[in-house]
Amino acid sequence: MQKLRALTWRQPLSLLAAFAWVGVALDRFTEISQTMWVVMVLAAVAGLTICMRTLRLQQGVVRIILLCLVVLCLFGLRHHLGESEYHASPMLEILGEQTEPMIMLACVDRPARLQRDPLDAATEWSGDGLGGTEYQTMLQVSIETLRIGLEYVPYSGRALVRVGGDCSDRLPGDRVKLLGQISRIGEPTNPGQRDLRDWAARNDLHCILQVDRAEDVILQTDSGASTGYSIWRWGQRRIAALAASAREAILQQVSSDQQGLALALVLGQRDLLDNETSESLLVTGTAHLLSVSGLHLGILLVLARIVSGLMRLPLGGQWVFLVAVTVFYVAITGGRPPVLRAAILLAMVVLSTAMARPNHPLNSLSLAAILLAWWMPAEVFGVGMQLSFLAVATLLCCGRPGVRGQTAASQAVDLENQFDELARQSQGRLARGVRTTLSIVITALWYSGCVSVITLPIVWHEFHVVSPISVFVNVVLSPLMVVALSAGVTTVICGWLWLPLAALPGSVCSLVLSVMRWVIEFSSSIPGGHVWLPSPALSWIVTYYFIVLGILTFRDRGGRSKPIAVWSISWFVIAWWTATTPSPLPPGTLEATFVDVGHGTATIVRDREGEAWLYDCGWMGNLNQSSRKIDDVLWSMGITQLDGIVLSHADADHFNALPGLARRYSIGCIVVPPKMLEGRGEMLSQTRRVIQEYGIEVIEIDRDRSLSGAFDIEGEHAWLRHVRVLHPPSIRIEASDNANSLVLQLDHAGRYLLLPGDLEPPGTSVLISTPRPKPGGVMMAPHHGSMHMDADVVLQWARPRETIVSGGKRAAEPAVTEMLSAAGGGVHVTAKEGAIRVRINAGGEIEIRSWSQQPW
After folding, report:
1. Is omega for the bond preceding 728 within 30 degrees of 0, making it cis?
2. Is the peptide bond before 457 cis (omega within 30 degrees of 0)?
3. Residue 619: beta bridge partners?
4. Which is it for strands 600-606 and 612-619: parallel, antiparallel or unpaired?
């Protein structure tokens, strides 16, 4: 109780902030109704009122507890009301996950975002979407009406509009007619996949509208439309215009290969960063340097303070100038939670200075946490907000390295250190400079290490990467970032005043960013600098922070480091062991998981011996050669290495995820049909470079050179004796790569699993001329269930009990299911059911589960 009372007097807002966030989390993860929240609020307020009027003994502690309960219930109710308002939108009821044509009248209510690489972005939302331009524009709009039939019907809600083209000139307040394809934001279709509905709820978005051309975004300028704007909307338009001009200044004055970094650093616009740079930032733990936060605002305010001093402003005028700069920068960078948190901290410093009152940094940080949790409660679950507050709180609590508590022994040591410092003053200037520099570096490493350790569980859980190298890279990049940000801001200001003035700072910004990029890329290539891992369970993350919070609360400042260090090391060892232990299979079971990748194929096969193999790995539109859809499923299984990857043929939608997989997993070998990797094309060339870079063994097999001749089937890969290669023959068929697809038959307990790739004529006739398997197995439909590639012929030959279709929208058409079920077997389509898991147990029984209907 004494600890609680002392904490209340020293840091009252910290205690209230903790209960505020707990209230928000309680509403998120429980089923408490709105009525119950109201009753709880009234009961807590009544209890606090009675306590303050009647209790005398120990009333301080009781008051504290009741006040905390009031805050908890109020913030729980606030989150509940926000969630209820979001889910009450009729848009969530009338729309399905499948796209349909739509004409929409709406009002733009956020600044437009222009980004590259629409093909890869489209696959994030709709597996089959393809763009056709170099840029795409992201708009957020408030829906006014939808065209239902021939009538325009009023609807409320907000939509994310993805336009295949440049519509960045649309400003908040513009009324537009949009012609496109609309759909609701769907639920995850694979285990381990990020739920985009949570992101949509935090951003108050109810649906997605895909507009193929910029011409289909029509500005409404008819006489009936209002041409006036409110003060708020007028301010939004001016800020958006200034942000656009700042963006243009950077694009004109910064070298083309550094423009993405410059926009991210100065304006927080990360849309032009290429995937390779984004991943390098992630694995080196430096992504936060290019995400506008308190660090950026702090650097900007230091520059503003220097400018105000040069302008000889009085003290009051300087504070007003700093506040104006803060408000403007918050607005122009989009008002994200990290920069809002920094702005609130600055406001507390200004207020405490004006009132001549002391300012406790932790209390100020806690006030920011309370205000943001009330203003945007859903953001409490956003990783950006969590890491922002956690990093600053760590910096405020960790202290300087070597600082001890105020005991008699520590005071004696401090006295001795003072004498040592006096002795060092007699040394030469160079020696003192070296010692000072070393002290600064050690202190910076200490702070960087503390932040890295404390944020590790959240970073690991959200991004599946552990990056020890980040401790050192952040120290190296921080001074470079100060110079680059200063030059970038100067470029923007000069661009507003007179564009030719921006050439010099733009060149400096480009030069410093090129050095930063080199450091980041070099650090990302250091062996052991980072490791990709499955994430620990959420409950284990919560346990870590609960214990750390207990140590901070009940231990004195000088006695916290060792307990936190011991607990952090113990936690990491246990978390690593539990996260990387693959989920067990029932004894004698063969498992195949067909990942929902849209139009493509990725099948994870796990056998009774504990090996994990992948049959094909790609999907249409994956030009960045990402593996994220497959990664999610592998990590959910606890898999960190693949014994082998089988590539059926040289179509990109069957192998273009290999570079991403090679960066994240240890791959034993790659199995291909003869001469598959000798084909032409940039995708195949990149794949060959990746195979050579990572030293992965390539094994060619065919019907006459089976797996048994390539592996030790009596030892390490004993289960491969049950895998037969049915196609292609040793002499290549003079036809397409599809016709020469590698067809595997996995026999288990009297059943089979048939994987035919994209087999098509004349390869189909070659396959069915071989001995047919026993009926009653499981077959993947060739060529994603295409109705024009003789899939029904293979079906009649194989006579499967169940057929799996790995495909996109076309595979979900009823005609495909009708064709494949003609022989009486069941049909399962990933586009309709999500990931599909097939298990054949030791008794030959087949179990099929779909992630959308029966998650595992």
Report:
1. yes
2. no
3. 600
4. antiparallel
